[in-house]
Amino acid sequence: MILAGSPSVLLAGSPSMLDPHGTEASRLAGVWWLAFGMAVVVYMVVAGFILRGVLRGRRSEQGRSSRISEGAFIWIGGIIVPSLILLVLAVVTVQATTHLRRADKNPLSVEVVGKRWWWEVRYPSLGVTTANEIHIPVGQPIDLGLDSADVIHSFWVPQLAGKLDNIPGQHNVLRMKATTAGVYRGQCAEFCGVQHAKMGVLVIAESPATFARWASQHQHAPSPPDGDETARGQLVFMSSPCAGCHTIKGTQADGTRGPDLTDVGSRLWLGAVTVHNTRNNLEAWITDPQLVKPGVLMPPTPLPPDQLRALVAYLESLR
Ligand SMILES: [Cu+2]
């Protein structure tokens, strides 16, 4: 089947907001644990009262009256304590929100455009364009500019930051800073059509040196094909509809309906974290992407086996 022989990509922990690996996510997890802690205390107190009531049973007419008057009980337990709890949560939430909105010094700007059903990723200061896999340096504040090319999407990588919508015509900025290197999985969190569930995203946080190497390698066009097969593959790509929808830097392919494929060979996954990027999966994807990701906005391209092999070899050489 399609997934056979896939290498497994190690994700850092589980994609949960309770497993934070970034400054913003830690702050949010802190608010969550505080709310959870307070809820646990309230639950235990209420459960204690219920147990006590059950064990004591119904009081007789002559029973001793409670030491606390009913009026005081309602004032304290029903009004003062809940108001205090809500006040604490309100203050903590507002503080955390202001902190998350505060601009950092010298952030790295990354533009992330939500499209059905993948993410375009651009680094304006570096001149790099890629898709679905966002490389960032650890410890560097990142300003993610969120936009949409069609409907409302929502960008959420729970281990690094909160959730923020990609809204057509509105530029939102999500700030994040990874504190540990790793590959973090995210997901479109706003229903956006048939393939919404297969609109994943990866943030690859790496050491500043590794990131700098990645960035400089991706600033210029990939070197022209150096073998017979890859050269034939490039010819197949340029003479098929591929080039009308995809861009490959340094060639005449400059389509924009699909992801930029300049570095497709170095991606870990295909189809926005749908299948691992292996030779078999690439062949299956090109032959009929509808089988891999039904409803996807890329048509099937049946090719003779030798052309398909050459095309895949060419795509794999783009790094
Ligand atoms: Cu979406």
Could you name the ranges where pLDDT drops below 50 across 5 or more consecutive residues? 1-7
In CATH terms, what is the fold-level topology of the largest domain?
Immunoglobulin-like
What coarse outline follows from CA principal-axis ratios?
Answer: elongated
* CA-CA gap between termini: 26 Å
Main beta sheet, described? 5 strands, mixed
- What is the correct CATH architecture of the largest domain? Sandwich
Radius of gyration, CA atoms, in whole angstroms: 27 Å
The portion of residues forming beta strands comes to 15-25%
Structural class given helices, strands, pairing? alpha+beta
Please provide a written account of the structure.
The structure is a single chain. β6 (153-156) and β7 (164-166) form a beta hairpin. This protein has helices at residues 23-56, 70-101, 208-219, 228-239, 242-245, 279-287, 289-292, 305-317; strands at 108-115, 118-123, 128-131, 133-137, 142-148, 153-156, 164-166, 172-176, 182-188, 200-206, 269-270, 275-276. The strands form 3 sheets. It has a 5-stranded mixed β-sheet. A 5-stranded mixed β-sheet has the order 4-10-9-6-7, covered by helices on one side. It is built from 8 helices and 12 strands. The protein is of the alpha+beta class and 319 residues long. The two termini are 26 Å apart. Residues 1-7 have low confidence and may be disordered. 29% of the residues are buried. The chain has 2 domains: 9-57 and 103-218, Cupredoxins -  blue copper proteins (Immunoglobulin-like), CATH 2.60.40.420; 228-317, Sandwich (Immunoglobulin-like).
